[in-house]
Amino acid sequence: MSPKIIEEVYNIINTSDFKHRDRLLGIAARWKDFNFSTIVQDHNFFWEDKEGTVGKAHGTLSTAEEIEFIEVNFK
Asked: Which of 2, 18, 23, 32 has the smallest number of CB atoms closer than 10 Å to its CB?
């Protein structure tokens, strides 16, 4: 995510009355600081809230895996 998109997401949440607003602000605040250390838990929070059945996160990609993913899917 680009800094601009992260800022937009943060501002939308900040001015909302969303269910779980405080939790969402915490997630967005970490992202603003480029802190993705809890990205698996963040993903699964949304996944569980939407009663997901496929796609639960179990870990993150290594740097090499992430580069390969980007090259395969976005170039």
From this structure: 2
